[in-house]
Write a structure and sequence with these properties.
There is one protein chain. By secondary structure, the protein is an all-beta fold. The radius of gyration is 21 Å and the shape is globular. Strand 19 and strand 20 form a beta hairpin. The chain contains no helices and 26 strands. Helices cover about 0% and strands about 50% of the residues. The strands form seven sheets. Strands 6, 7, 8, 9 and 10 form a five-stranded antiparallel β-sheet that branches. A four-stranded antiparallel β-sheet has the order 2-3-4-5, with no helix packed on it.
Length: about 300
Amino acid sequence: MPTILKHKAFSFLRKGLFVAVMCVAATVALCVQSPDAASAKENQVKSEPRRRAADALSLAAPSRRIIAEIPYAAHQMLWMDDDNLLLAGARVLGTRDADGRPRSGPYAVYRWNIHSGNVAEFMRTKGGVGILCYDRGNIHVAYLTEDERVIREGPIGQEREIVHKRSEKPPFTGAFNPYDCRYREPPTATQSAFKVITVLRQDHGFIEARYSTFFLVRPSKQRILLENFHGGLGGPRFSEFLKAYVFQDGSGDLSSSADRRVWVIGIDGSVAHYPMPKGQWLGGGTRGMPVRGGLAMFSLSSSIM
């Protein structure tokens, strides 16, 4: 049974846990849907998940519990590991200025240990962070000042700072890769008739396509045909739990009876898909992410009340 959330929710996945961070009254609350050991293997089931009207649209399903709450407003968040979240934002001070607007502390990147509750300033910034990326010990933070762009990147504790004019291109070659937090020259397709559509982590390779034929190209240049994969919407998200890339359905059919799916490409070239349950939540921007017990879905449909 998928949990369907509406509007202001960010999803994070570590070890298959579904975590929703809700920004309510300038407070960040962390909610976890507890995994059901008996249904841990349901991720591989390709039949449509069962639905119950009683909890399909609930934000407080019986299996979910609030485990922590902190007075911070965050515009970017990501996991460092199973215990620590990085969040870019500011502490909410609980007071208001003369115009009635909430006061907040300085912009920074914070490390939040969800078990101890400790929130530590990790890196002070002079404005809202545009890019926050972390991968296996390396961090990349980018933010804008009045006329400059500041980039801090490198191994944790050994970051270097690069500052350049906003009107100039970044002093890097290639394109920024959000999966390993590095600028790299884009790879070349293995055949002239194919086009590189997604550059993955450097140790995972890339995906190339020609019409409706897709291949995963490993760093060794091994080509693996992605059977029964029909593409997806935008760039995929990498799931640490599945060791796979998750593509959203690219269909333009927004009807409640649409056949919508989430596609999962494993780093070994395996292909799986998860059907989304039909309903009024398909009428807006709908996203799905596989978790231990099935599929977590997020909908912006205005028909969900």
